[in-house]
Amino acid sequence: MIVKVNKLDFYYGKFQALIDVNLEAKKNEITALIGPSGCGKSTFLRCLNRMNDLIEGTRTTGEIFVEGENILDPNTDLVKLRKKVGMVFQRPNPFPLSVFENIAFGPRVHHLAKGKELEEIVRQSLEAVLLWDKLKDQLSRNALTLSLEAQQRLCIARLIAVKPDILLMDEPCSALDPVSTQRVEELMQILKQDYSILIVTHNMQQAARVSGFTGFFLLGKLIEFDITGRIFTAPRDRRTEDYITGRYG
Amino acid sequence: MKNLFEFIVEKAIFLSGAASIIFVVLIFIFLLKEGLALFGEVNFFAFLFGQNWYPISDPPQFGILPLIMGSVFVTFGAIVIAVPLGLAAAIYISEVAPHSIRGFLKSGIELLAAIPSIVLGFIGIIFLAPLLKNIFHLGSGLTALAGSIMLAFMALPTIVSIIEDAIVSVPRSYKEGALALGATHWQAIYRVTIPAAASGILAAVMLGIGRVVGETMAVLMITGNAAIMPTSLLQPVRTLTATVAAEMGEAVSGSSHYYSLFAIGIVLFIISFIINIFADIFLHRSKAMKRRKK
Ligand SMILES: Nc1ncnc2c1ncn2[C@@H]1O[C@H](COP(=O)(O)OP(=O)(O)OP(=O)(O)O)[C@@H](O)[C@H]1O
Ligand SMILES: [Mg+2]
What we know:
The complex is a heterodimer of chains A (249) and B (294). Chain A has 249 residues and is of the alpha/beta class. Chain A has helices at 41-48, 78-84, 99-109, 115-128, 132-135, 148-160, 178-191, 204-210, 228-233, 238-244; strands at 3-12, 15-25, 30-34, 58-66, 69-70, 85-88, 166-170, 196-200, 213-218, 221-227. Chain A has a single domain (3-244), classed as Rossmann fold, CATH 3.40.50.300. The model of chain A has no long low-confidence stretch (mean pLDDT 92). By secondary structure, chain B is mainly alpha-helical. Bound molecules: adenosine-5'-triphosphate and magnesium ion. Chain B: Pfam families: BPD_transp_1.
């Protein structure tokens, strides 16, 4: 188990957004999180790299073990944690810098490489997201001029450059068209050989297609967590069944 | 009745709008007419690149290069001081300072803009000049550097508020992306936020330069007023503006000296025009980013 969550409660001020969440995610597996809007999927994901710390007045209790370490421990080194647990956002958010600088950002921040070595990391990262052939002669191009799909791939490459273990993806395809979505899904299948992925999605077909395990959230609670095939064919909970058959909207 | 009223209001507004443009054009024409009259007697290049400004000796010499260099030295010094300070202040206000004191700091900086330049000139003469004199062992502290320091304070409010605006309009998602990659707050600021705010920062620099080049009173008081070619910031200099202000009273109307001061006016006009164009271009780019954010 690469991620193990025990009795997680999360509060925005007085509002409890996550209620007693328990979940285990396997290494080199894609774990999908589904549920209606506002049920706490993004909040949960942002607990795993402690991005919620940036929001004032939030409070987290319980335990989250990432590779055996409780990251809710106040002594956790956030720089190391976020190097290990990378995040892809809903809207592609490349920096307004060149393609090269976008990918070099992480290695530079973590002092991983310089010069030739850095160029090699940039090449490998772009290859990993299947962008190298397209962009190898355009490394100085401003990343904001790329297509949305290429931007999202670049954001994934940017993470890969710091060699994380876990990729958190919050609706990574929701800004993309169906063809781009399919290609990014194919990319996820390749990436899962080297990384453990947790993906939030609104799209149940997507969850069914890409993931090995699926969790269903409702109103801050993890209602059901199981092998994806079982969630979609034989859910144990009525509410899960209602959701996947479209009765929640 | 109502229509007549609207008609009058509409025309009045139109006239006041047109008036501002007409005045600018009139001023420019006047400036051209008086300034260009000089070039009947004085060669244009001898004016612009001549190294001697002796307007009342016999024969007079009207080389303004020492004055241009005086302005350049003072401006350069002021910008070198004001931009790093302004950038640091803007970063502190927008990214570091607790919310509760942000407004307080901003009004403090705006207050700086409200200090009359003559007061800054006084402070310069009384405190700054003696201080520089002692530090650098100079004959007199009234130097280009003294002018640069005082003007830096004058330019600071403009620079801080424009940079602050530029930083605040950088999309949050950039910074989130950087932090999610494990960057520290500072790394996110200097590697992502600052480059993203570059156009706004350049606009601030341009407007700061405009503010400094045009300033007259304080530089007249504290730069030592020697129209010689400067070679260092520790020398007395005289700027374009200070020359006009100092000599307008004594120049005989209709003389070459009189026309030469208007010609200096034209040079100043052109300089500010160019600076404003650049500032405008950068501000536009910065606004374009702000729109993208929404
Ligand atoms: N910064 C915040 N401050 C206060 N409440 C918040 C904040 N962010 C989210 N919430 C609330 O927490 C709950 C869970 O939000 P969250 O964004 O995690 O939902 P989600 O499942 O990701 O929804 P969506 O599918 O729309 O992205 C919602 O009720 C939301 O209103
Ligand atoms: Mg969400």
